[in-house]
Amino acid sequence: MVGVSLESNKIIIAVAGIGGLTTALACLHHGFDVCVFEQAAGLEAVGAGIQIPPNAMKVLRALGLEAQIAQHGFLPQALQARMGQSGRQLFRVPLDAAAQHHWGAPYYHIHRADYVAVLKAALLARAPQALILDASVASFENQSHGVKITLSDGRQFSGATLIGADGIHSAIQQQMFGPQKPVFTGNVAWRAVVPVAKLGVHAPEANACVWMGRGRHGVTYRLGHGLANFVGVVERDVELDNWQVESWRQAGSQADALADFASWHPIVTSLIEGADTLHRWALFDRAPLASWVQGRVALLGDAAHPMLPFMAQGAAMAVEDAWVLASTLADIMGPDLSDQSGSNGDVETALRAYEAKRHTRASAAQAASRANAKTFHQADFLGQLMTYGPMWLGAKLAPKQVRARLDWLYRHDVTAG
Asked: Does the N-terminal peptide bond of residue 15 adopt cis geometry, omega within 30 degrees of 0?
């Protein structure tokens, strides 16, 4: 079955996750036509809570979506770190008006399903025919004046360029560079969403809080619509428990989760006890890619730079990518991607420029996420004293310096040009 060819200046995007939908909106904003191919029959986002830090909010604001995010999201009061068992506070960074001014945008929490729904609604309002569901991109072919894609059902489409925003198991990335060899980190993550009303006095405070402990950590925060979110990460002895299922849909038992966080603070254990369903998945690390571009095809988000979930920056980096990709194409190519001059290098030059602008920053975020695993999981008393002691003291003596350590992430504004 052969599909109808797209216009020669159409940008093809796979798939309709946060990165892909934001890319579509950013491209529309910069005057391009887009078509988003999504493998699922509907956009019912799996997962739980997600954080939208100020660097991502600046992009969403530029796309006219801040009000919709505010409607569905939750505005926390602070970023906080506490010890997992005692609850002792290590530091607290206020997210007040002064912080919003300092970083240039607010910090939100939102359910992933609401986030995707906001992006989807915006796309359909601006380009009603742009989203094609039940359409899995299986392969691509770089051509002299465009890219041809083949779907898993055999349909074929052509466009000016293909953007692979198809996640950590990217089929586009695999065709470009061959199969990757993800390495099991030894960490297994839990997640759950619980109504705040169900938690009573042990509901999490209105903060994004990381709870640190020996070989494990937890993250708690509130979402919109009266919900609370929990993520817990536990180190495994891979010789005894080599559980390596990398799927957000895999259910786990409440008893196992409670055993992993036995004797921890009641805010953490109450979230586990109050969850109707707990999911868990193994965390894999992947080596940074040397390149994200091949001809007229470019990768974006997790397909380009997957990162461990220890900085709340995975989706934020994809959102930044989306804006930079669209603005770079606009700067170099103008509104016409048809390459009528016959030079295939023009589009590739633009994609290479996008990669050059993003590679260093995304790689730094990857490295910081990887490093935080060690920070959060100090296993012995001396390690905890050497790591958490300076955090506590610094927060007491120089609280603004604690906030300043996040400036490289949060003050960054890709929309500023």
From this structure: yes
